[in-house]
Amino acid sequence: MNATNTRHARTTSGATLAFLGGADTVTGSRYLVTDSTSRVLVDCGLFQGFKVLRQRNRAPFPVPPSSIDAVVLTHAHLDHSGYLPALVRDGYRGHIYASEGTSALCRIMLLDSAHLLEEEARHAARHGWSRHEKPRPLYTVDDAKVALERFVAVPEGGAVPVAGSMTARLLGAGHILGASSVYLDVDARRVCFTGDLGRSDDPLMRAPHAFEGADVLVTESTYGDRRHAKVDPEEQLRDIVNRTVHRGGVVLIPAFAVGRTETVLLHLSRLRERGAIPDVPIYVNSPMAVSVADVYRNRPDSPDLWQRCADPGRGRDDRCDVSSCGCRRAHRMDEGCSASAPGRIRHPANLPQRTLSDSESNGRWGGRLRCPIKSSRFRSRSTMQLRTRCRPDT
Question: Residues 262, 293: contact at Cβ < 8 Å?
């Protein structure tokens, strides 16, 4: 399949389900439901990863954007939402329905994505590495701002008419703030799009809402062939931090800016409050991650988040106060730290010793952790702790 092809599944008499992305690759989630009168697009993500996949973002959208009546999002990650500015620029005129948490995160992520795309185009023009004489970004910050005006925040659990006779209902999926499973009623049948599902025992997010049944189920299967190890991440993190700090090193933790960073900060906060690790400074090497942490912290009443911090005496079912998840005491890299550029680590050896740094990972050119690690002192004393998916051959 390429970006201009579709795969169709018959859902009911006169209605079809087309996979415009998220098929034969794990990114670019785009599912088009069509009945006799309306078209609804569930998710509108960017293709990410290898160049051959990223090039699909430049292909014309498989159907005219103006022919789509509504967009419904499962969550804010760019592989589910990142193509929206281009869709709106190219003619989409309907609403974008999303949970309140997803709407809040998209205001950060889509603008950041557009900024990085513009930065990448300028870099390509300046250094001549693009095959185009005048490299252009996939979309601009202005495109993202226009797309954000079309968002409509949807409360959890309520049925919302989205197009024609189709109605959508969003139930918590536990993946990140605002993540939802979408139940779409069409022609007296129900299609459920699970979106990315979180764990039932996540330390920060509420467990996914129980499946309520559907005639057609579309679910993510990126990690469907493995089981999570039964380990305590805080114990592992405690040992790594103590061992590294004892020898005067720096702990670098590449982590996704949305979701993973907030969880890592929560674990570090709990360990520090219990005296299980030294009270060393924590630097967040991502302006976007700092902004996202503020969204998590400022939404303590969100149904997605545990409500009070668990300690060993309270048990697994207790809830976490997001205002105590370490966000308040984490510093941006441009606050009190010698780095060659704000927001990125270029020479970790210049960081203060006995420091922990939480950084973006697995992003595009502008968001990667840039870490040449030239210093032998850094290599011998410090630790790179990976909390992300890696290909087996890396």
Answer: yes
178: Cα within 13 Å, side-chain hemisphere: 27
Helix then strand then coil, % of the chain, to nearest 5: 30, 20, 50
Longest dimension (CA), the chain: 67
Shortest CA distance to 43 belongs to which of 18, 66, 60?
18
Q: What is the dihedral of CA 205, 206, 210, 216, to 10 degrees?
A: -30
Average pLDDT over residues 302-313: 49
Map residue 51 onto helix, strand or coil.
helix
State the amino acid at position 18 in one-letter form. A
| Strands 250-254, 355-359: pairing kind | parallel
Distance CA 179, CA 29 (A): 14
Classify residue 130 by burial, with Cβ atoms within 10 Å: 0-12, 13-18, 19+.
middle
- Domains in the chain and their CATH numbers? 7-218 (3.60.15.10), 233-384 (3.40.50.10890)
Token pair recorded at residue 165: 């006779």
For the chain, what percent of residues have pLDDT higher than 70?
Answer: 72
DSSP labels, 306-366: -SS---TTT-TT----GGGSSGGGEEETTSS---SBTTB-S-GGGSPSSEEEEE--S--GG
- Compute the chain's Rg from CA coordinates: 22
- Distance (Å, rounded) from C-alpha 205 to C-alpha 214? 24
Q: Which two tokens stand for residue 30?
A: 């785009």
**Alpha-carbon distance 54 to 28, whole Å?**
9
What letters, b where the CB count within 10 A reaches 16 and e where it falls short, cover 255-282? bbbbbbbbbbbbbbbbbbeeebbeebbb
Tens digit of each residue's pLDDT (9 = 90 or more) over 187-246 = 889 999 999 998 888 888 889 999 999 999 999 777 677 777 788 889 999 999 999 888
Give the span between the Cα atoms of 122 and 372, in whole angstroms.
Answer: 23
d(CA 275, CA 268): 11
- Give dist(CA 302, CA 94) in Å, integer: 27
Instruction: Give me the amino acid identity at 360.
Output: E
- Say what the pLDDT of residue 286 is: 79
- Structure token digits, residue 130: 């693009």
What pLDDT digit, counting tens, does each position of 61-85 carry? 999 999 999 999 999 999 999 999 9
